[in-house]
Amino acid sequence: MSAYFKRNCRACEQIERNKTKNQDRALALVERRAISRACILGVSKRQLLDEMHYSDLVEDVRAKLNGGVCPDCGHPFESEADLHFDHIEPPRTDHDWEREHISNIRLICACCNQAKGNKPFALYLKDREDTRISNKREGGGPTSDDGGGQGRLF
Fold first, then answer.
1. 20 to 30 Å CA-CA from 132: which of 9, 11, 28, 65?
2. Rounded CA gap, 103 and 128, in Å?
3. In 10 A of CB 70, how many CB atoms?
4. Tell me: the pLDDT tens digits for 128-141?
5. Spatial CB neighbours of 33, under 8 Å, sequence gap ≥ 6
6. What are the angstrom distances between the C-alpha of 33 and each of 48, 58, 63, 75?
C-alpha cells in the first residue's frame, strides 16, 4: 500500500480555493445560487447556468456590487450579503421551470427581499404603495437625504 502525500496542507488548499473563487466574485455568487437551486430542484448546476441562463446574471451582479442600488428602494448594496436573487413571481411548484428562468429573477437588497417574501409581485407592489402612503401621512417620508425621493420604506 503506497502512501499518498498532498502537496499542500489543508489550510494552503483552502487559500488556493479562495484565491480562485475571489478572482471573479460575481461568477462565484451566481454559481453558488445555481448550486443551491439545483439541489432543491434535483438538477445539475450546469442545467441552471446554461439552459435557464443563470450565467447571464453575472454582469448584473458585477454592476450591483460596484456601486449599484436596489431597484425597489434605491438603497446602495452594502456588501454581497445584501444582494439577493429574488423570484419576481414565486415558483408554484418545485419544478416550475417557467418561474425558475432568468426572466423571472431580479437582484434586490435583503430588506426588500424579506419584505416581499413569497408574495406575488402585484401584492408586493400594493403593500409597498400602502407603506409609502402611510409614511407620507405620518410625516415619516423617505429616510435618504439625496433629494431623489427614494429611501428605505421598510
1. 65
2. 22
3. 23
4. 888 777 766 776 44
5. 54, 57, 85
6. 10, 11, 17, 22
Cβ–Cβ < 8 Å for 142, 151: yes
Cell, residue 61: 451582479
Cell numbers at 56, concatenated: 447571464
> Rounded distance, CA 77 to CA 106, Å?
14
Three-class secondary structure of residue 91 per DSSP: coil
Task: Specify whether the CB–CB gap between 110 and 80 falls below 8 A.
Answer: no
How many Å separate Cα 31 from the centre of its chain? 12
In the block, which residue shows the cell 432568468? 102
Torsion of CA 56, 59, 64, 66, to 10 degrees: 160
Instruction: Name the 3-class secondary structure at 110.
Output: helix
Alpha helix ranges (H) inside 1-154: 10-23, 25-41, 45-46, 57-65, 97-100, 110-116, 121-138
Where are the chain's structural domains?
Answer: 21-138
**Residue 8 carries which side chain, given as an amino acid letter?**
N
- For 5-40, the pLDDT digits (tens) are 667 788 888 888 777 666 788 888 899 889 998 888
Which cell numbers hold the place of 16?
488556493
